[in-house]
Amino acid sequence: MADFPSLQARLLRRVILPLAIMWFAGTLVINAVSRYFTQKAFDRALLDDAYAVAGHVRLGADNRLSLGLSSNETETLLFDRDEVLFLAVFHPDGRLIAGHAKLYLPTLEPLHPPVFTELNLQGQHMRAVVIARAAPASFKVVIAQTTKSQDQLFRSLLFYSIVPQLILLLGLALWLRRAIREDLKPLSALAGSLNNRDEHDLEPIPETGRTLEIIRLGQAINALLLRISGIVQSQREFAGNVAHELRTPLAGIRALAEYGLAQDKPPVWRRQLVAVLEREQYASHTIDQLLALALVVEAREVLQPQAVRLDLSVREALMRHLRRADALGVDLGVRGADRPIEIIGQSSLIDGILDNLIDNSLRYGKPCDATAAAITVGIDLDVDGRAVLSVVDNGPGISRREWDRVIARWFKGSSANALRIGTGLGLYLVAEYCRILKAELTLDSAESNQGTTIRLKFAAHPPSAIAGLVSH
User: Fold this and answer.
1) Which whole-number Å values give the CA distances from 201 to 83, 136, 240, 303, in the listed order?
2) E strand or H helix at 308, and its extent?
3) pTM more than 0.85
4) What is the distance between the alpha carbons of residues 334 and 379, in angstroms, rounded to a whole number?
5) pLDDT tens digit string along 436-449?
6) Reduced DSSP (H G I as helix, E B as strand, rest coil) percent helix, strand, coil of the chain, to 5
């Protein structure tokens, strides 16, 4: 963990570093612009001095040019408290008229605009301007000036522009550091609360925070804790159910075995072994129902919708129960499974629904009279194009008054109580699977002794959704 930077440090870097780069770039631009316009101002003053000197150039009676300024007047004209100025007046061919001979620069045409240049004179860096005049005769004037005050001004400008901004940047960094730390306190508190929490404590955490992201994180953690709590509770219930439901058949198997071992007559042994086999079948059925109950919890959390061929599922379910139906003398048939019908669901849940409904009808769907028992599994399409699965038997039926109770967990209907079989989970599992699949579960029989018709109407899905799931 030490190799990873803190979120606070990352946020500061992400904010301050680009801000500092932009500030540095802005400072360079501002200084370049300031230097350009300051240079313009100094050059303008230098040009004014050159024109002032050019205005004192005279043409004598001998047609010779001269500078009509005394040395004192020249010093007064070129006086500068901080800088040193040099001047020179030249003929077009380079002959000196007045001033400093080493200021000679290339010849300019009389109408050429002023030229500014840099030069070194007597070991000093200077800024110079050259102007060419045509009257009273052709000549040029050169004025050069040291740049100490100009450089000093640039340095001062750079200093007074950078230092205050650095102070402001530092102040902004400190303020951001404090603000980010305050905004991240709920995150640290959340981490501390989770680290100090007991592994058995699945209570929701307080949803505190001043930002939407931290509030959403707390809500997501609470939603996860709620799901984990539901799974843990289901596991506890499953373990309790296994211990409770298996205790009775296992105790019965032990009692039957102990009684058989105490006898020395083979017919008694046979009766006891048959009874043991029946108890074992009941225990196996109970285990299957409990495992199916655990599937309910898993399916609620991780349901993966897929395209399921309902007609194939029905035919496979009939094949699984056909031998048992024949042994019981039950006419087990199918209707409407000769055409492909697809739904969006989960094959394990569809199989669980079919197995429980067919098993329920085989157990309790025997007619009270001498009529042969018959079970029909049908597939239809309603007017909206939704698939409808039905399981019909001609047994004693389930009354509407009892329907809401038999789909509750652990409730055994009157037939199961009379036969002393069943776990009270079959129709509950069907109802839960339908709820997960968003299928509508209904009972069609109005009164008992009229047979049972249980229908499932699956949710409608556009063909494109089914095609998309099939393609994947």
Assistant:
1) 83, 105, 21, 27
2) strand 306-309
3) no
4) 8
5) 888 888 887 544 45
6) 55, 15, 25
